[in-house]
Amino acid sequence: MARPIMIQGTMSNAGKSLVAAGLCRIFRQDGYRVAPFKSQNMALNSFITANGLEMGRAQVVQAEAAGVAPDVRMNPILLKPTGDLGSQVIVNGEVLGTMPAAAYYEYKHRLRPAVEAAYRSLAAEYDIVVIEGAGSPAEINLRQDDFVNMGMAAIADAPVLLVGDIDRGGVFASLYGTVALLEPEERRRIRGLIINKFRGDVEILRPGLKMLEDRVRIPVLGVVPMLQVDVDDEDSLSERLERRAAVRPLDLAVIRLPRISNFTDFDALDRFPCAGVRYVTKVRDLGQPDLILLPGTKNTMDDLLWMRQNGLEAAICQRALEGTPVMGICGGYQMLGKELRDPDHVEHGGVLRGMGLLDGVTVFQQAKTRTRVDGTVRTLPGLWAPLSGSTFTGYEIHMGATEHADAVFSDLSSGAADGAARRAVLGSYVHGIFDRGDFAQRLMQLLLARKGLAADTALALPFEQYQEQQYDILAAGLRRSLDMDAVYRILDEKLEG
């Protein structure tokens, strides 16, 4: 049975996911079979496993760092917010239904057996399981029926490392306050503190570290600097979404929709030295980019209305008519068509006029498409012709089907035809389309040629090699910052009663 260790945080975005991924990599480097685990994840960035099941991307990143295939047991419950008060509930990779928050909290105790079964199954196959919490264990209003933070630590009998974010300020108070709000048996589980995202000279912190240790009687295992590492982010708190300027030859503008999902689709573009990815929420920030990207969304119709009301729809349509390339993925592809129909109230309900840049009609359905695919781009007309014959690998996650009369974008290994191309506009249902194959490189070369720039500046490492380098950089940063001897001692200790 695996030895568990759990990473909890004083708040969301304290760096739990990144620390967990780094530890997964370190344990793998040290010769252990290691798996990540997070009982419940709330995020719109998700992934489809090889057997067609849906899980959160944070555990996919951690699995990649650990050198193992993503497995839905690593994230048995995924909550995908559909609005301010409700979420689609996915259990063991399958959609259970959509619930308001209050209804879910009444229901969730029924999911505890699924969490326990997933964890114990994983633990039977690995040497170490790195467990990630969610939010903060000091959310005392959620203590009842908890199986995400200290409740999960109890299920796994796991020691806990508590991570605090110094970049947002108040890290000593947040660490002290979190520990103080826990019950005595919960406090005993915390075996080490980690201060994350530090900038500056660590010696300046020494007096505060000593005072904190004296007050909470828990050692500080390390101060982790703001690591310069390119690893997928978990959710909408990502700092990537705050980028407002492109500082590379190509200006790639992603529309930051209110319900943006799978924005990790665009992370792979960062490996190209020529590509600068930025996020846009206002017309005045759109400018004259080399490519406009419409991402996925958990609510296509509402996000299209948001763009219509703030003027971005009209601005994008004007840029497309002027010849600026526009590409939509999943929900973004659906928006580009001429009509959206939702007879079963899957999203907004009713019928909504689309952007009209593609000749497509999307009908939303209750059944969710979930599949991994390989794709080959068909012979395309006009602007997109240089992409003809390029290849990609990715996955589909959507609740809708689109019929169109435009040129088909690609043929998929599933036997289906995907997407559409028309003039300067391109759409596809495939997430991860820029990760593998030569499609992304051919796209960068196309955009460079339009600007009269040398195509060889689009050369980049294969994405898998780039990812491996980044995980190694992350592990090296944690090794320099953390007392790993103490971490291994904590792994080997039996918790005292």
Q: What's the arrangement of secondary structure elements?
A:
Elements: E1 3-9, H1 16-29, E2 34-37, E3 40-42, E4 46-48, E5 54-56, H2 57-66, E6 77-81, E7 86-91, E8 94-100, H3 101-107, H4 112-123, E9 128-132, H5 150-156, E10 160-165, H6 171-181, H7 184-187, E11 190-198, H8 206-216, E12 220-225, E13 250-255, E14 260-261, E15 275-280, E16 291-294, E17 296-297, H9 300-310, H10 312-321, E18 326-329, H11 331-336, E19 339-342, E20 350-353, E21 360-363, E22 369-377, E23 391-398, E24 401-404, E25 407-412, E26 417-422, E27 425-428, E28 431-436, H12 439-450, H13 463-481, H14 484-492
Helix pairs in contact: 1-2, 1-13, 6-8
What descriptive keywords fit this protein?
497 residues, alpha/beta, six-stranded parallel β-sheet, 14 helices, 28 strands, globular
Structure description:
The protein has 14 helices and 28 strands. The strands form six sheets. A ten-stranded mixed sheet has the order 15-13-16-18-27-26-25-22-23-28. It has a six-stranded parallel sheet with strand order 2-9-1-10-11-12, sandwiched between helices. Helix 1 runs parallel beside helix 2 (57-66).
